[in-house]
# Entry
Amino acid sequence: MTTTMRAAVLGGGPGKLSVEEVPVPEVGDGDVLVEVDLCGVCGSDLHMVLDGWGAKGSWEGHEWVGRIAATGNAVTKWKVGDVVVGGPAVRCGECDPCRAGRPSLCEARDTPGATPDHGAFATYKVSGEAEVLPMPSGLAARAAALAEPLAVALHGIHQGRVQPGMRVMVMGAGPIGALTIAALRAMGVDDVTCSEPTEIRRDIAAAVGAARVIHPDELHVPSIAEPGLVVDGAVDVVLECSGHGRAMEAGLAQCKRGGMLVLVGAGMAQPKFDPNRILLNEVVITGAFTYDKDGFAEALDLLAGGKMPVDALLEPGEVPLDGLLDAMRGLAGGEIAGKVLVKP
# Structure
């Protein structure tokens, strides 16, 4: 087996990325080495690369599918040739959040970007044997590559306690926002509005099931002098998927009394929330970080069951590693709307 591979390595600083030959990672006793077939580009990857959050010498990529190329000496669950989907990191299982079934809040987890990552924007990826999942029978690799971001979308929906019959607004129709809309419709939630500034993403929002698609300028955001005013068309739950501070502020104003604003998208632009609006209307604001305990299983079930409009969610074709930086810039600039898949 070869001893080197190609990887899209961060150079340290905003937009610094180069494809380099690096050593194939070592396989520990409890690890598997996966030859990566496809890896999706996540919004967090844009922050790590374009905004320079990631550690120099690392490489990103966590939405992946591939085939096992080697196994560690202690691995019993997998064999060479098995087709697998990248799953969630194993958490400690001992802290209060883990025992409460909330592994996303594990007290032993790292802050994203704080330590160097060796992800799947590379020929090979090492994972613990418990951190990969079997590919469901009959599920195409392109669809399976949506499992991780769909699990993120589902966690946001569950954090909002969304049920059929509720009115929901999704802020932003990037990949997570679009997956959120599609998942809501698959779950029987029909009254879904999407607020999105770019035309091509508004088109995707409509294609995946949004009942109404509007430009953010169409939203009524009451002034600070009107904290008790409930806007026309107020919703039960707002799922904010863009990570933009102004969208978070506008999202708060779209909640009915007793409604909920769920922050799903990450960003550095901090919102300025009106505390009197929160107080007078008893609006709950919460976050949604990564996945539910069974989030990947639920995501794969939805995908394998044909309940998701996969073709509408994905960009056509695949991008090579050498085209990754340009694809990221296109996504950040709103020129590319769907989920981009990279073929290392």
